[in-house]
Write a structure and sequence with these properties.
Blueprint (H helix, E strand, L loop, with lengths): L6 H4 L21 H12 L1 E5 L3 H14 L3 E5 L5 H8 L3 E5 L7 H9 L9 E5 L4 H9 L4 E4 L4 H55 L7 H16 L4 H11 L11 H4 L7 H18 L6 H7 L3 H5 L6 H12 L20 H16 L10 H10 L7 H9 L1 H10 L4
Parallel strand pairs: 1-2, 1-3, 3-4, 4-5
Helix pairs in contact: 8-9, 8-15, 8-17, 8-18, 9-14, 11-14, 14-15, 15-16
C-alpha cells in the first residue's frame, strides 16, 4: 500500500505554523491552553491501525515529534477491536483497505459497541472517491484524511480531535460528580426522613414502651410480610417506615386509659379506639368523602404507593387509620371488610398483633412464641387476611430473628 505521509515531509523537519488567537498572542505565549495541551501531549492514548508496519512508524514518528508519548499499534485489523476495548484510546488513526477486516468494518463494529462508541476515529484512505468518503462519514468518524497525508494537517486534526475528546471527558466527569453528589444528598435526606419518622413514632410509643422497640419491630415485621407478598424493594422500604407510625394516635389517649392494668371499661375502650382516627388526622387529616373511597377502592394500598407529593405520609395515614380493621368487618374505626381494607393495613394488623402478643404490656405478660402463632392462626379469616397471614408464617424464621434482635431490654 502507499505510504501514509508525503515523503517530502517525512524528513523535512518543518513545523506547523503557530495559530494566532483573537487577542493577537500566538501559540508560543504561555497560557492555560498551553499547559492543558502539554498535559494532553503527555497523556493522550493514540492507537494506529494499518496493515503495513512502515505506515505506522511514519505516523507515530510525526506524532512523537509533536510531543505525543502513548502509542498502541496493530497491523492486524481483526485484533483492533480487542485492542480498543482493552486500551480505550483517546483517538484512533486507521487505514481503510486492510485484509481480514476493512477499516470501515472495524469502525462500524465500534459504533455498535457501547464500550467503544465514543472513541474518536480518524480514517486514512488512498481512495479519494466521493462514494468512499460518504460511506465512511455515515459511520461517524471524527475526520477523513486522504493519502498521502500531509503531516501538518494530520497533527492539527489529531490535536483538534483530542481537544474535543478532553472536553467531552471533562463534561462526563463533571456529570458523574454531580450524579454522585445527588445520590449522596438523596441518601442523606432519606436517612433524615427515616430518623424523623422513628422519633415521631417513639414520641407516642414511649408512653407505654420506653425502649421504642415496638415500632421498630412492627415496621420490620411488616417489611418481611410485604417482601413475601412480592412488593418491590422500594415499596417494602416505604411500608417499613410508614408502619412505624401506626400508633401515633396514642398521643391523644389519656395515660389513665393507655396505662391501665385492669380491664378497660366500655367508655375507656372507646377512647382507645379513637387512636386510629387521631393518628390519621395527625399525619393526613381525612377529608369528607374519603371514607367512601376507602370502602370502594379495593386496591387503595397499591395506589397510595404511587401518590405524588409525600407518599410515605399518605401511606402512614392509611395504616394508622386501618390497622385495627378486621377481615370479617368487625374491626374499627370504620368496620371495613375483606379487600376493602388497604393491603398495608392488613399487613400491619398481623405485624402489630404478633408484637403485642409477644411483648410485655402494662396489662399482660409476654406470651410464648408458639402461643402467639396459635392465636394468630385462630384469627385466620376473621381477624386476619389469610393470604397475609400465610406470608407471615412462611417467614417465621426471619420474624423470630427480628424479635430476638430487638427484644426489650
Amino acid at each position: 500500500m502507499s505510504s501514509v505521509l508525503e515523503s517530502t515531509r517525512a524528513g523535512s523537519g518543518s513545523e506547523p505554523a503557530a495559530p494566532v488567537f483573537s487577542n493577537g498572542r500566538n501559540e508560543s505565549t504561555r497560557s492555560r491552553w498551553d499547559q492543558q495541551y502539554e498535559t494532553l501531549l503527555a497523556t493522550a492514548k493514540i492507537a494506529v491501525v494499518d496493515d503495513e508496519e512502515l505506515n505506522i512508524e511514519i505516523v507515530q514518528g510525526h506524532l512523537r515529534h509533536e510531543g505525543y508519548q502513548n502509542f498502541f499499534r496493530s497491523t492486524d485489523s481483526t485484533q483492533a477491536l480487542e485492542l480498543f476495548r482493552r486500551v480505550q484510546p483517546d483517538v484512533v488513526l486507521m487505514d481503510v483497505v486492510m485484509p481480514g477486516m476493512t477499516g470501515l468494518e472495524v469502525l462500524a463494529a465500534m459504533r455498535e459497541d457501547e464500550s467503544m462508541v465514543h472513541i474518536p476515529v480518524i480514517v486514512l484512505t488512498a481512495d479519494d472517491g466521493a462514494d468512499t468518503k460518504m460511506h465512511a462519514l455515515r459511520l461517524g468518524p471524527s475526520d477523513v484524511l486522504y493519502k498521502p497525508v500531509d503531516a501538518t494537517e494530520m497533527l492539527l486534526r489529531v490535536r483538534n480531535v483530542l481537544t474535543v475528546k478532553a472536553y467531552q471527558d471533562h463534561l462526563a466527569g463533571h456529570s458523574q460528580e454531580l450524579e454522585r453528589m445527588v445520590r449522596e444528598r438523596t441518601a442523606d435526606l432519606a436517612a433524615s426522613r427515616r430518623r424523623i419518622i422513628h422519633c415521631l413514632a417513639r414520641a407516642a410509643e414511649f408512653r407505654d414502651d420506653d425502649t421504642g422497640h415496638h415500632v421498630t419491630r412492627v415496621g420490620k415485621y411488616a417489611a418481611v410480610i410485604a417482601d413475601e407478598l412480592g412488593y418491590d424493594r422500594n415499596a417494602v422500604e416505604l411500608i417499613e417506615q410508614a408502619a412505624k407510625l401506626h400508633d401515633i394516635g396514642k398521643i391523644g389517649v389519656p395515660d389513665s386509659v393507655l396505662l391501665k392494668r385492669a380491664k378497660l371499661e366500655e367508655d375507656e375502650f372507646a377512647l382507645i379506639k379513637r387512636h386510629c382516627s387521631i393518628g390519621n388526622s395527625i399525619i393526613n387529616p381525612v377529608q369528607p368523602g374519603e371514607v367512601d373511597a376507602y370502602r370502594q377502592h379495593t386496591e387503595i394500598g397499591a395506589t397510595l404507593l404511587d401518590v405524588e407529593g409525600y407518599p410515605i405520609l399518605e401511606l402512614a395515614a392509611t395504616i394508622a387509620q386501618t390497622h385495627h380493621e378486621k377481615w370479617d368487618g368487625s374491626g374499627y374505626p370504620m368496620g371495613l371488610k375483606g379487600e376493602d381494607i388497604p393491603i398495608e393495613g392488613r399487613i400491619t394488623a398481623v405485624a402489630d398483633v404478633f408484637d403485642a402478643l409477644s411483648s410485655e404490656r402494662p396489662y399482660k405478660a409476654a406470651f410464648p412464641r408458639e402461643k402467639c402463632f396459635r392465636i394468630l392462626e385462630e384469627g385466620r379469616g376473621s381477624h386476619f387476611d389469610p393470604e397475609v397471614l400465610d406470608a407471615f408464617f412462611r417467614r417465621t424464621d426471619e420474624i423470630t430473628s427480628i424479635q430476638l434482635r430487638y427484644a426489650e431490654s
